Amino acid sequence: MRAKMEQKILSLAAERTANKLQEFLQTLKEDDLTNHLKNQAVKGRAVGALLRAIFKGSPCSEEAGTLRRHKVYSCCIQLLESGDLPKEVASEIVGLLMLEAHHFPGSVLVELANEFVGAVKEGTLVTGKSLELLPIILTALATKKENLAYGKGELNGEECKKQLINTLCSSRWNQQYIIQLTSMFKDVPLTAEEVEIVVEKVLRIFSKLNLQEIPPLVYQLLVVSSKGSRKNVLEGIIAFFNELDKQHNEEHSGDKLLDLVTVPSSELRHVEGTIILHIVFAIKLDCELGRELLKHLKAGQQGDSNNLCPFSIALLLSVTRIQRFEEQVFDLLKTAIVKSFKDLQLLQGSKFLQNLVPHRARVSTMILEVIKNSVHSWDHVTQGLVELGFILMDSYGPKKILDGKIIETSSGLSRTSNQNACKLGARILLETFKIHEMIRQEILEQVFNRVVTRASSPINHFLDLLSDIITCAPLVLQNCSSKVTETFDYLSFLPLQTVQGLLKAVQPLLKISMSMRDSLILVLRKAMFASQLDARKSAAAGFLLLLKNFKVLGSLSSSQCSQSIGVSQVSVEVHSRYNSVANETFCLEIIDSLKRCLGQQADVRLMLYEGFYDVLRRNSQLASSIMQTLLSQLKQFYEPKPDLLPPLKLEACVLTQGDQISLQEPLDCLLCYIQHCLSWYKSRVMPLHQGDEEEEEGFYQDLDDMLESITNRMIKSELEDFELDKSADFSQSTSIGIKNNICASLVMGVCEVLIEYNFSVSNFSKNKFEEVLSLFMCYKKLSDVLSEKAGKGRTKMANKMSDSLLSMKFVSDLLTALFRDSTQSHEESLSVLRSSTEFMRYAVNVALQKVQQLKELGHVSGPDGQNPDKIFQNICDITRVLLWRYTSVPTSVEESGKKEKGKSISLLCLEGLQKIFSAVQQFYEHKIPQFLRALDGTDKEGEEEGEAGLSVTQRASFQIRQFQRSLLNLLSSQEEDFNSKEAILLVNVLSSLSKLLEPSSPQFVQMLSWTIKICKENNLEDASFCKSLMNLLFSLHVLYKSPVTLLRDLSQDIHGQLGDIDQDIEVEKTNHFAMVNLRTAAPTVCLLVLSQAEKVLEEVDWLITKLKRQVSQEPLSEEASSQATPPNDPTEKAIIVQLGTLLTFFHELVQTALPSGSCVDTLLKDLCKMYTTLTALVRYYFQVCRSSRGIPKNMEKLVKLSGSHLTPLCYSFISYVQNKSNGLTHTGEKKKKTAAVSTAMARVLRETKPIPNLIFAIEQYEKFLIHLSKRSKVNLMQHMKLSTSRDFKIKGNILDMVLREDEEDEDEEGTATEHGRQNKEPAKKKQKCLS
């Protein structure tokens, strides 16, 4: 029966007209059609033709047809949802239904859509296949213009669609169909508002899904975002994963048991990686999405939002693979990194800011977290990481080299942030290198390329990175050996410093790879014969490095050497016996190659002697060969006859080529290193060979005899023997003068070397110490002659001591013996040296020189000068002695006894201590606890139980108390006995030590209170001392609380001391700080307080900017805005208090009769900054006034205060400055010559230049106050008096008067010989100037 029905329907449908088909369909019962459809479809038979026929016979123009069509449509939807249909049949039905949807009237479409929404709400969907029809139905509905019944009212098609989407998004979605429902919206035309509704709904669902379900949903969401609301999509995704990361980190850092219930790290990272790929793919297709991402992250970076997080940074780094965004992304990341470091630095330097701004995660930490996370197959991030690392190192590495020193071009705050950014770049590359194998080759290539191609700029940071990379994975680099050997080919063309750094870095590789070592040796041998001096130096450096690092069998252990080889190379020593035997031959070959250097320039020879000493201690088996080489070299310049004076052939050490005179043999350095090699050999090697035959030991006896003979003959020699007496020529302009200078330098060097040799072999013998003193007298005589000659000539070398050849270890031992050795048996012999104040002063001066070298270069000259550990040990010993000497023998005691020229020893000791405390904090920050223990004398001995737990703060505080006592003693002395130099040094020492105190500790507060007390009670008219003491006060105060009240008090003192700009007003003297007096008030204290006020304004400005960005990121609704920044926001309150107190500070200074010059100039600039900051605050409240909360009362008070206490006085001060300038100009014209007048005018111009800027700043402030008054409906201008001082109208009568005066003056100055025309010319110039 049903089969016939179907055949009839199909045959009628084949006719041209559908009338008969319509009539037949009307005769059928309602359920017959639908039941037949169901049966056929479920059996898997094609129902497409039947459906087409039914729809053809059910036109929407008739009500019955519409109903039938609706019923069949609904039936098909149910069929699709039942899940009983075969796949092909279901697809066919969906296709047909899609085509027919547009024929429905609007009311039916609304009903159909409501059925879908109802099914979603109730969760009755089974397969979700029918959801493919919903976008078609909604699209069709949107095209209906007529009003349709919807709910209780009537809406047009577009509005109905909006309501349906609203209802759909407000209902709960079954987890199973979330992706289908989201995907559906991509086919619906949506308005911006509708897209926002959909996006918000999907983002809310994220937290309810399993991790693995999120990537496909994000993909669909990104497709929907092409219709709009891109910002919300990106914001939502980033915020969700940021929160997820935080939870994950908290759970992992907390109880380990939680790991059982949390998501594994690997799963989370893989999901994040997939989502990042989806977003990058979407950005490739939709550039607008990329632009939105950058805009969103830039806004977040400026404000306080959490936009920059590990996830968003990883996303940005992946986006760098898209060429059009690459540069913008790296610029964004660079800015964010440097800003993060600057903000951190600003916070660390101000307690005021620390109390207001919460601690936030640093961008650098986030980037390092991205590297750690990238191990989970984030290959798309690694390339960006590598590029970012190199960009940071290239952009923020050191920029210039001057005289071998690296010069930083940027200023203080940015310099440190730049250095940190460069270090971060290196860290990024190192960590990425460790984790990702595929990128290693590229990192190495880029590092090597920079080392080779950037010869002129400093590349220490790249060499350090290379060293770290090789240390962490030397075996990995064997695969890149070709790149390393290729770099070796350029060694001859690179600067010496680069070569040394490079070879030191690759040294572990030379132990692993024989081929690499052979390549290097070939290159070095070629370089040894090169014509360039630097190439030959590089060859010598390379060979010496090889000698040091290839141990010969039987050599002493590396613990006795200056540098350890490193743990990573332990694997190399597998065949150590074979290596050691082979190494000996290899090392002897190298020594033969190096002997060629003995005939080269002085610089190469010097490097060789220094290197031999290091090699000897690393490879003691080479001692014989090295010592013989040095001995034969010395014999060339040694006079063997025992009675011949002088004992050395100085002529042979100087090379004369035409007019050019140069040093050929650094004989003093040769002797120096021979002495050290000999000393080391006798103390370390000989005790082990006591039973051996003495044949081989002949060389050391020869050397001892020679040094002894040189000593005796040097003592007997007079300056005339060297032809270096007072009558000799020492000028730098003649060849004889240059030669004499070189010879004098050699003789003084030899004396120093012999002093050290004789002291070390003396065993506290009185005779030896007498010889030491005689040698010093020889040194001193020559030094005095040179000083005298230099004093007469133009060159000021008198006070500059040439680099001493004494080793730092010897200086330490000598000072200990001179000042601390109280052994009874040593007393008599040491009294010989102690009797000479000059000698003791010389010893302390050399110690100072060594510490100065350390501060400037990071190392010292002489043996072990490059070994940080030994330098540190020597520094500790020297500090202990200097500290004892200074505290035991005060300067006042020493100076009252003897009146000798030059600084006293105690003062030199103090100077040394000041330099040492500064250098230790610069180079040995990590060893400060050990350093302070050494000063207490508890470093080596077992610490007492009570001292074991002492903190750095407690130990530093103990040292501080000693120096405080010294300063108090100095201040309590008579004014004529006050030693300004000593006082300044003491304050500098206290300043250095106070940096070691924890700002929250009671010791810090105590130090601050003490400093304030000193400033309050001491009235010294010493500007330099006042400046250093005030600097100490401010540096402590900012770490305790804001210094604004301190500034206000000081400004009152300055006003009291200097008087008022109105001479009729008598100012009451406040005397908060006795240190502020007539001599110190200006410019010293005035400039200091203004500079401090500038810093406070900078901090306030930073806070206002932060608040403004916060407000700009909040929603515009009134409720949200009023919640965002509560009326009693502590930051706002703090800003207003700071500015209010600063206002009273400026109120005092603008009434002060400041002297012309820097004080007036700086005050005008700072006033300008003050008004700019006030304007910024007014503009912030202009933004805030969008909310209903209005302006706080304390802001109104601040505005009132500025109108009554500052602005009118600023104009008075401007008049005062201009009148003073005019007075200066007119008196200058009458009394001085034209040149003097022009100088005065230039100064006046300089002083008055900031005046227009200040007036503009005041006007801007008043302009924005007017705007704010209108918006807030509060009259803020009632306290502001508009001044007439800003009227720049030229007053004719005054101008004529000035011009007449000018002409009269010129007539007076004119001489009889000059023509009238010449007299008139300057007047014309004046006229031009005034017009």
From TrEMBL:
Q: Which residues form the FANCI solenoid domain?
A: 68-284, 381-544, 805-1033, 1046-1295
Which CDD domains does the annotation name? FANCI (cd11720)
* Record's compositionally biased regions (Basic and acidic residues): 1312-1324
Q: Report biased composition (Acidic residues) as residue ranges.
A: 1301-1311
GO CC entries: cytosol; DNA repair complex; nucleoplasm
Domain FANCI solenoid 1 cap positions: 5-57
- Write down the Pfam families for this protein, in alphabetical order: FANCI_HD1, FANCI_HD2, FANCI_S1, FANCI_S1-cap, FANCI_S2, FANCI_S3, FANCI_S4
Could you provide one GO biological process annotation from this protein's UniProt record? DNA repair
Any one GO MF annotation of this record: DNA polymerase binding
Q: What's the protein called, per UniProt?
A: FA complementation group I
Q: Where on the tree of life does the source sit, at the highest rank?
A: Eukaryota
Sequence segments annotated as region (Disordered): 1301-1331
Q: Where is the FANCI helical domain?
A: 288-373, 558-786
